[in-house]
Amino acid sequence: MRLLYICLAYCLLPFVLAAVLWRGLRDRSYWEALPERFGYGPRPAPGGIWLHAVSVGEVQAAAVLVRALAERHPGLPLVLTTATPTGRQRARSLFGAGVSVRWLPYDLPGPVRRFLDGVAPRLAIVLETELWPNLYRACSRRHIPLVLASARLSPRSVARYRPLARLIRATLGHAVVVAAQSEADAARFVALGADPARIRVTGNVKFDFELAADAVPRGAALRAALGGAARPVWVAGSTHEGEEEVVLAAHALVRARLPDALLVLVPRHPARFAAVAATLRRRGVHFVTRSSGLPVAAATEVLLGDTLGELTLFYAAADVAFVGGSLVPVGGHNLLEPAALGLPILTGPHTFSAAAIAALLLEAGAAHRVSDAASLAARVGEYLAVPDARRRDGGAARAILAANRGALARLLALVEPLLDRPT
Prior knowledge:
By secondary structure, the protein is α/β, with parallel strands linked by helices. The strands form two sheets. Strands 3-2-1-4-5-6-7 form a seven-stranded parallel sheet, with helices on both faces. A seven-stranded parallel sheet has the order 10-11-9-8-12-13-14. β8, α10 (244-257) and β9 (262-267) form a beta-alpha-beta unit. It has helices at residues 2-26, 56-72, 85-95, 109-119, 133-141, 155-161, 165-172, 183-192, 215-226, 244-257, 273-282, 311-316, 336-340, 355-363, 373-385, 387-403, 407-415; strands at residues 49-52, 78-82, 100-103, 123-127, 146-151, 176-180, 199-201, 233-239, 262-267, 287-289, 302-304, 320-323, 345-347, 367-369. The two termini are 31 Å apart.
């Protein structure tokens, strides 16, 4: 089965490369450090810790773990791999020169061998769930302990993996330690063939993230520049194609009720900034871009967040948060960031990427589902008009976050004994 997988991977490689090159025509960061995708790249000191976080959400979740490991083991080199340009950029902005940030190699024998030869980690930690048969096998053959941290499996993922049951069972059989988010996730890993003796339920480290010390004061300063506390402000964060039109239609309805309301619209992917700006022009919306540095005037209807790494700042300056990737079947994005800031949260029906977190917030009344422009406008309008309602639901969101902390300590207790093995 693995040989069939390798043959298929080699057959698909030209198409994968073509996709990277094509995307690079619009976003040159896809072309950055291309040799790293084949396992080449800088060689850090051996015997360190390698962490993998596929994209922005996982990188953000990894931050608390990376910082804890750096504080507790200051002599160990840290390498973080990612698979998307936005994840790579976010990792560099979060960790600076203290962490070597690079692409995850393609899951082929040659790239994997070169990557492990160059990095030579004593421990591998993969955030959430990335199953790479050749990479995991190579780690096992080199006796590199591999931990799936905050591991999760949705029922949809289990169904998708089922036709590859033999390959997945073999991949998980390479002495992989699974630190599952929940009992349900643990059971799904067992169903796919993971060894129950190597599974622990540690929770989700996303609950342990800490806001930057200056997040709230910087948010207050931005709010003053947007018109002050008297001006209603809501954020639509991490939106995808198909969502901006719904959000803008909702904003028009909100402004019919609250004419001075301001929307901060933050597309998920930088490659779409220009397209979203074109949509705003086509609709005749008075907007300014964050990157322009132009002031947000009283007549401004929308601030387009076309910068990287500022979503937390926008949330900190707002009254209400809609979290994107949820009106379209992407699976939804990070609901805990606005929760940490005490904001009431709105999300669409598609939250399968973080179903447990969404369920907790929805059951507590800290988040509400919307399905179209009318329902989104109704919820936003209610929160903007009724401060007590948003304080109540925002407080509930913050309480959910506080009640579920502790996964980091449990994960470190599982991981640190693995560092004691000789290099």
